[in-house]
Amino acid sequence: MANVNHEGKEWATACLVVIGNELLSGKVTDVNVPFLTKRLFALGIEVLSVHILPDHHQSLVAAVRDCSAKADYVFTTGGLGPTHDDVTLKAVAEAMNRKFVHSPSLEALLEKLYNLPQGPQRTYFATIPEGAELIHPPESDYPQMVVGNVYLFPGVPEVVRKKFELIVDRFVSCPIFTAELVVAQSELSIVGILNRIVYGCPDVKIGSYPGHDNGAENVRLTFDSRNEQSLKTAVEMARKELA
Amino acid sequence: MANVNHEGKEWATACLVVIGNELLSGKVTDVNVPFLTKRLFALGIEVLSVHILPDHHQSLVAAVRDCSAKADYVFTTGGLGPTHDDVTLKAVAEAMNRKFVHSPSLEALLEKLYNLPQGPQRTYFATIPEGAELIHPPESDYPQMVVGNVYLFPGVPEVVRKKFELIVDRFVSCPIFTAELVVAQSELSIVGILNRIVYGCPDVKIGSYPGHDNGAENVRLTFDSRNEQSLKTAVEMARKELA
């Protein structure tokens, strides 16, 4: 990752492609998005978008292709297993214009890991995008696969957490400074002042979230910036004018 | 909604566009996706995709336009408030090729609801996509807005739940029949048989989710179909060959 990425931003960006019919039918509630967005934010990586998609080849090809072109890193979760509904590898191959080829080294590993007998099943399970990088951290079993800027994670949350931390050093960005301020007023009553601060501090991303505290309206203001001084200025303005 | 929609499916489809910087930085964990996907599945509506996007005009315009073209219903959550980071209404107007116009009737309502004085703030808050339908269920305060096939919900989960149930009769589809079977085997060991069932029952959507029970591997199989007889056949095959 360069210091300035291909969108002209001075930090790294990411997209998440979260795969599984069970997430779209509501049978399973995803917890990988909260984990990955929090971790990426802490690393200073801006998440541009998250797409939750079914086990459907063409939908995945389109999304991965689009995300890979617009972000520095793409993280997929789900669809890596051996059954008919595991279609991620083939879709990533097509999205990244790679052939879908047999990997003798992965097949040897699968034999060792799962004691899987030779046959069409093992061959299928060892068919991957051409040129895919297979990372074998010592603590891990099934390797972490990387195709270009696309990092393929399984769906199982504990495995995602473990694998992400094992390769976290690869993800480089510049830090985001953050602050928060709760204002004991209604959101409607602060709009005018808030707008002045927003337009006066263009390199600070300000969020405004109305809430309640013991029945009284309040607003949680969040401040994010790559520039620590700008952050301080914005928070100071808000504190002076609103708190 | 016709019985056969524009994708040739005999049931209704939906996309969700979930809006808010706070969801992409991990500061807030979305709970509207689990709610909406579960409710839509129960209504027989197939969710084609979910997109979580920042408060960014062009990203929202592209996603809403794309989703509105491919699905029968689009549900947006978030970005309806009065502050600078509430950009949904303007983006939906552009996505749906509508002008962004002042609504005297909404302004009158806002005055009544929030006791908001006349001024640029109230005018801005009452500027909406031309031709937007405003639904005023008696139990609700701020109206439910609909633009073409796009239903605009706020981000606050309790309000989403309440508003969805108030207009649920609008969403018509044909039912999904479902079943589940837990098999006390490893996923790898059932792939061959599972594939035969999958290819033998093309109108049944089968999901395979590996898990553990007291340390022993198992697989949860899920079956969804619009055809009750096909569902029964698939479950019967699985029960006979795997359980």
Explain what this protein looks like in three dimensions:
The structure is a homodimer of 243-residue chains. By secondary structure, the first copy, chain A, is α/β, with parallel strands linked by helices. Chain A contains nine helices and eleven strands. Chain A has helices at residues 21-24, 32-42, 57-70, 88-95, 104-114, 120-125, 157-166, 187-200, 228-242, and strands at 13-19, 46-53, 73-77, 100-102, 127-129, 133-135, 144-147, 150-153, 177-183, 204-213, 216-225. In chain A, helix 3 packs across helix 4 (88-95) and helix 8 (187-200) runs antiparallel to helix 9. The mean pLDDT of chain A is 92. Chains A and B meet through helix 1, helix 2, strand 2, helix 8 and strand 10 of A and helix 1, helix 2, strand 2, helix 8 and strand 10 of B. Strand 2 of chain A pairs antiparallel with strand 2 (46-53) of chain B, so a sheet runs across the interface.
The largest sheet of chain A is: 6 strands, mixed
Report the mean per-residue pLDDT of chain A as an integer. Answer: 92
Number of strands of chain A: 11
Q: Could you estimate the helical fraction of the residues of chain A in percent? A: 25-40%
Tags for this entry?
11 strands; alpha/beta; six-stranded mixed sheet; 38% helix; 243 residues; three-stranded antiparallel sheet; homodimer
Topology:
The structure is a homodimer of 243-residue chains.
Chain A: E1 13-19, H1 21-24, H2 32-42, E2 46-53, H3 57-70, E3 73-77, H4 88-95, E4 100-102, H5 104-114, H6 120-125, E5 127-129, E6 133-135, E7 144-147, E8 150-153, H7 157-166, E9 177-183, H8 187-200, E10 204-213, E11 216-225, H9 228-242
Parallel strand pairs in A: 1-2, 1-3, 3-8
Antiparallel strand pairs in A: 4-5, 6-7, 7-8, 9-11, 10-11
Helix pairs in contact in A: 3-4, 8-9
